[in-house]
Specification:
- This protein is α+β, with helices and mostly antiparallel strands.
- It has three helices and seven strands; from the N terminus they run E-H-H-E-E-E-E-E-E-H.
- The chain has a seven-stranded antiparallel sheet.
- The radius of gyration is 15 Å and the shape is globular.
């Protein structure tokens, strides 16, 4: 299983960061590869499933099933697409005038062959980490712009 993660520190409150993160109408501005919401359970992000489609050439259809939610702290979700199954964690932690947002992905490739661990180590893991970093970089820009209003 691969594990990647990154975090960003941005001016703002954890409550504001959390509200922005769960606002799927804003996802096109910061979630890497996001295309559109296909369906969302009414109880999401506290429970239930969110299904979304990626941009062309991306991950395809992505299902996110909430495994754990703690208001003000974050969410864990079981994530699945055509290539991986994973546990994704987003965390929000206030630190003075800033909020630290962390994003982690513990993933397992659905298809593997002998020696595929090397491909994962050299290419897939880096691509996953880069995607998380792009998401959080864009998220920080959005949160900063929103906080400045």
């Amino acid at each position: 299983m691969g594990r990647v993660g990154t975090q960003v520190r941005v001016r703002g409150r954890a409550q504001e960061a959390e509200a922005l993160w769960y606002d799927t109408t804003r996802w096109p501005t910061f979630v890497d590869g996001f295309g559109r919401v296909a369906s969302v359970d009414p109880e999401w992000p506290r429970a239930g499933t969110l299904t979304w489609d990626s941009t062309p050439g991306g991950r395809g259809r992505v299902l996110e099933r909430v495994a754990r939610y703690a208001a003000g702290e974050g969410q864990e979700a079981d994530v699945e697409d055509d290539r991986i199954t994973a546990r994704q964690r987003v965390r929000f932690r206030g630190d003075g005038d800033d909020v630290i947002v962390g994003l982690e992905l513990d993933y397992r490739l659905k298809r593997s062959t002998p020696g595929f661990w090397l491909v994962d180590l050299l290419f897939i893991r880096r691509a996953q980490r880069d995607s998380l970093a792009r998401t959080l970089r864009r998220f920080a820009i959005e949160l900063s712009a929103e906080s400045g209003l």
